[in-house]
């Protein structure tokens, strides 16, 4: 594929390390924009994230301004439970691991539910507000389990 854009070298907006970008979006040194193309600090610079710094922009899990705030406070950029609910509103499909098992979460027109990846529905609620308050795995609230939830990400 012919590339018309020019790969730029610029500073990560979060940590200041040098990163490659193409049209304002972070890329690798070959100009490819792969999902694995994150800065060492955990940020992926996006054009949309710069335009709307208070909104989540894929593939990041939190907004640019929130990432700046947390980096300054030496806090991780990994999503909190509230971030996860915000991600779900934005993307509607999220995945995570709990005790080594992969789960999916889906928000559709009728309900919000957790399911075992490739398996059964674990719990289901009519609204995202009710989901946020009551979502559980084996009777344990997801918000209480949150510290044990691993690898929260956009569903593949
Ligand atoms: Zn960085």
Mean pLDDT: 94
Q: Could you tell me the strand content as a percent range? A: 25-35%
What class would the helix/strand composition place it in? alpha+beta
The number of distinct structural domains comes to 2
First-to-last CA distance:
24 Å
* Strand count: 10
Strand/helix succession: EEEHHHEEEEHEEHE
Q: Name the overall outline.
A: elongated
**Overall helicity:** 10-25%
Uncertain spans, ≥5 residues at pLDDT below 50? none
Strand arrangement within the widest β-sheet reads: 7-6-5-4-10
Bound molecules: zinc ion
What is the CA-based Rg, rounded?
17 Å
Tell me about the largest β-sheet. 5 strands, antiparallel
Put the structure in a nutshell:
The protein is of the alpha+beta class. 23% of the residues lie in helices and 29% in strands.
Observed structural traits:
156 residues, elongated, 3-stranded antiparallel β-sheet
What secondary-structure arrangement, pairings included, does this model have?
Layout: E1 8-11, E2 18-22, E3 25-27, H1 47-51, H2 64-72, H3 81-91, E4 93-98, E5 101-107, E6 112-116, E7 121-125, H4 128-134, E8 136-137, E9 140-141, H5 142-145, E10 149-154
Antiparallel strand pairs: 1-2, 2-3, 4-5, 4-10, 5-6, 6-7, 8-9
The chain binds zinc ion.
